[in-house]
Each structure stands twice: as C-alpha cells, then as structure tokens.
Amino acid sequence: MKNFIALSLTTICLLASCKDSEKTPHTQEQITYEESSETPKNEASTSNDAHKIVVTEKIATGGYIYLKVVEDEKEYWMSIPDRDIEIGATYYYNGGMVMKNFESKTLNRTFENVIFAEGIHKDKNGVKGNQKKKAQTGAPSVDSVEKAANGIRIAELFETPQAYANKEVIIKGEVVKVNNGIMQVNFVHLQDGSIGNGQYDITITTNDEFKIGEVATIKGTVILNKDFGAGYLYDVLVEKAVKL
Length: 244
Fold this sequence. Notes:
Blueprint: E1 4-12, E2 26-35, E3 51-60, E4 64-71, E5 74-81, E6 90-93, E7 97-104, E8 109-116, H1 154-159, H2 161-164, E9 168-182, E10 185-191, E11 202-206, E12 215-229, E13 232-243
Parallel strand pairs: 5-8, 11-13
Antiparallel strand pairs: 1-2, 2-7, 3-4, 3-6, 4-5, 7-8, 9-10, 9-12, 10-11, 12-13
C-alpha cells in the first residue's frame, strides 16, 4: 500500500521592505508526497522492480533536470540530478518520490505530479533499490571543533541517539559537504572531529545556506530512521536546522 506523508518544510520569505539588519521571517509550507516504491524500507530491490521509461522532453534547471517520460503508455514528469539525457532513449530507475502540486520556482511552473528520483540508467542491471547508508570508515576530515555553548558533540549524538530522538539539539561543526535544493531543502554534512560508534559525520536538512569549510553552529530536531525515499535514508538526521 502506498504511504502518504506530509512534510512541513521551512521556507524563507524575503520581503522587499526589510532592511539588511532585520531577520528574515519564516513561513511554513505544507507539501504532500507519495512514496512510489513498493520496496520494503531498508531492503535492496532487484532489477525486476525497475521502471522502464522513454524520455520525450527535458528541461535543465541548474543542478537538476526535469524529464517528461512515457511508461506503459502513461506520460508523467520526473526530476533527477542533472546529467546528459538523450531524447527518445530508454532508461530504467527504481524508487522515487511523488510530489503533488510541486511548484518549481526556477521554472515558474507548478507540476500536478512529479517524481523525484536518485537517477536513471540505460542498463536495467544498474538499477539498485534504497539501501541504508553504510557505516562510516576512516576518520573525520576536520580537526577538533569546540563544542557550542549548551550544545552537544556529534559523538554524543551517535553514541546515544535514542536520548535525543525528537528533541532539539545544538551542534557546532565544520561543513564538509553541501547538496542544495534536494526536495526543496538543503542537505548539509557537519563534522566536529569527534567519533561515536564509528560515526562522525552528521547530516542536517535546512533552508539556510552553508559553504564548505565554514564552521557553523546550528539548532535542529533529531529524527531517527528517516526515509525520504529516492535513496535518502538516515539512521540519525537533524531536521529543520537553523544557523545560530
């Protein structure tokens, strides 16, 4: 059975009348999406579950590309990270997430339904299902970052995640990776040099902008076993993070 999930995403509204010294107000935008994959969570699917599509139209939007595709005589739109796509070619994909009444501000267009997928493949055997992130190996790529006032270390979060589940935390760390505009939020990776249960890199979702290499203090809510669909699964995630 398909699951319907409501996500409350924080979006930043810039008012022309605001002065540079004023804080930007925030509003809440409700977006409903439907997981299109029937694959059980955290289990890999086989190529037998792959969707077979033919691309009939494409629109690039800086980092992402929107594709109009046909599958079993059904036509629909989907979006994937930007790459070379051949019109008329056959591709395969698995999973994905349906966003209803999705507004693309870049295109100034609202899609009744659009599927966000991790990618598409010309080879059916190249399609893989959602899998949990593998345990991190090696060591943090940053030196020790001082713990924020009233905050916690990343190691503390990974050592006792249940203690922080659904609670707000403050974390200070160095930005090591940024993926902007995924499902209308930014995915940012922080490290502070500490290691807990072999984990040292925490992912946050945010509407604020971060740059790789900056040291930032954030506050957000800890969510466990978060499955966005489209290949985005996290044992521990900090959602709706804001810069302090």
